[in-house]
Inverse folding.
């Protein structure tokens, strides 16, 4: 079982049409057909959206994405048009909103990995490959790869796992030329971000990007545009560099406290069972919030206010 304990009702805003409720974000279209992405404070773990929110999380993710878009602007254009709260929307949306160019999304989750863990590690243990790419022997959980790799995945519905696919499958779906551009840009952006994070004591183990193309009618419909959220703790694995130690699961910079509490004896919850996870205790909420704040502050070098 997985998904929402209780799926939230979309907020009604005049002029906005609700189009999607993701695990964390809600999507609307405005009158100009722009996409309005609102990051909530919802948190997910073990494929569940938890019944407890992490205060400020949505704002932190949005502000961090905005900061990264800026850092990457010379490498790739992005979809953000504005962060203004649409007229008539709740004041609580301030800082959570990205008003975006509507794009024709490439049907691929563009993942870059510099370190081995998660689904990459599972495949590696079976076949010494990740997404069909051969890797050297002797790597462990958390090992740095000889060079970053592009490990695309296909998008899954809420509650389903994304599926890693070989590069050839991407080429079949989007064409060889687009596939090559997706891979090249993914690795270029990952490399830049990894270096920035590393200077700030954070290992960017892996991350997922989504790209799109402008509508056919626009000036340059072939422009590859970086979309969605970028380089947040929800789309990436951030590890504190000083605690990195291959051969075990790494401390992660974000939901570690949530996972630890849910998986520990106190929660009384069986992650392999049928029942939804229980609410988080206040202490776990506060610790988790502090981790998100710390990630933001360390990366951007700006205090969270
Ligand atoms: P999950 O909560 O598991 O991530 P999800 O991906 O369905 O589920 P969100 O990430 O909240 O939900 O939704 C964002 C959706 O918007 C994604 O489907 C993403 O591909 C899409 N998207 C992001 N940026 C743009 C854009 N500029 N134009 C069109 N679609 C976009
Ligand atoms: Mg998503």
């Amino acid at each position: 079982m997985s998904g929402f304990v209780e799926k939230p009702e979309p907020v009604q805003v005049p002029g906005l049409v609700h189009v999607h409720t993701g695990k964390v974000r809600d999507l609307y279209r405005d009158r100009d057909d722009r996409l309005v992405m609102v990051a909530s404070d919802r948190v997910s773990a073990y494929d569940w959206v938890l019944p407890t929110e992490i205060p400020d999380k949505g704002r932190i993710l949005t502000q961090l994405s905005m900061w990264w878009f800026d850092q990457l602007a010379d490498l790739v254009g992005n979809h953000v048009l504005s962060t203004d709260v649409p007229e008539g929307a709740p004041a609580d949306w301030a800082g959570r909103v990205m008003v975006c160019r509507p794009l024709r999304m490439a049907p691929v989750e563009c993942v870059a990995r510099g370190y081995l863990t998660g689904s990459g590690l599972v495949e590696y243990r079976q076949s010494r490959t990740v997404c069909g790419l051969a890797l050297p022997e002797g790597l462990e959980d958390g090992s740095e790869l000889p060079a970053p790799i592009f490990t695309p995945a296909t998008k899954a519905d809420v509650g389903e796992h994304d599926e890693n696919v070989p590069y050839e499958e991407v080429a079949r779906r989007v064409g060889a030329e687009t596939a090559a551009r997706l891979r090249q840009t993914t690795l270029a952006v990952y490399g830049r971000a990894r270096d920035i994070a590393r200077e700030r004591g954070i290992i960017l183990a892996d991350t997922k990007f989504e790209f799109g193309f402008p509508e056919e009618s626009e000036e340059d419909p072939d422009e590859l545009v970086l979309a969605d959220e970028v380089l947040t703790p929800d789309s990436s694995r951030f590890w504190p560099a000083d605690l990195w130690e291959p051969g075990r699961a790494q401390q992660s910079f974000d939901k570690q406290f949530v996972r630890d509490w849910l998986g520990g004896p106190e929660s009384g919850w069986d992650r392999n069972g049928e029942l939804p996870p229980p609410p988080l205790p206040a202490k776990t909420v506060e610790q988790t919030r502090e981790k998100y704040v710390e990630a933001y502050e360390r990366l951007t070098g700006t205090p969270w206010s």
Notes: The chain has two domains: 3-102, 104-243. The helical segments are 57-72, 118-127, 167-174, 176-199, 256-263, 282-300.
